[in-house]
Model the fold of this input.
Amino acid sequence: MLLEVDAIHSYYGDSHILFDVSLKIDAGEIVCLLGRNGAGKSTTMKSIIGLVPPRKGSILFRGRQCVGLKPYRIARLGIGFVPDDRRVFADLTVGENLDIVVRKDTPNGSWNKDAVYDFFPALRKIDGRRAGFLSGGEQQMLTIGRALMTNPDLLLLDEPTEGLAPLVVALLAERIVMLKERGLTVLLAEQNQKVALDISDRVYLIDNGAVRFSGTVEALRRQPEVLKSTLSI
Done:
């Protein structure tokens, strides 16, 4: 098991957002956290990476306790994070956005700038363009590429397809599957049911800050009433 989140409770100030959330991820899986906007998906991601530390519960990565660690220390353990708002460095070029996150403790990692450009060829063509002038799809590719530059073992993708054109969504879905084929483990937070279920091995349905279903994609497809009640489809 690569990641084990056990009964976490997370808050924004006095607002209780996550209630007893638990999930497990084995190495080599794509696991989806599926739910409506505001269900608690992003808070779960931020709790794992340490931006919203849980007040109760446990988060183990390769058996090591992450609760209480600073986000940069959690990242150094091997977790990459792609936030839902992308957060590119708008005044830096595409190439500079990638260079700025290189980890000196992984000099022999498989992901470097050339590898990212091979993975997302469109970025190579705009290496010298400032990130603030990129389209939404280009910014999302850059943000994923920037996370890959840290050579993570687990990649957290928070709403990667939100607001993007269908062709870009299809490209990103294809690339996420390719990441799994290259040995990465992915936790994907999504509202897009079709994309999420098409590429994931297992799924957790979250609603109002609590997990309502966990199991394989096939098991969920056999329970359409669960999808309907949780996602209002």
Q: What stands out?
A: The first helix runs from residue 41 to 49. The chain has ten helices and ten strands. The two ends are 32 Å apart (CA to CA).
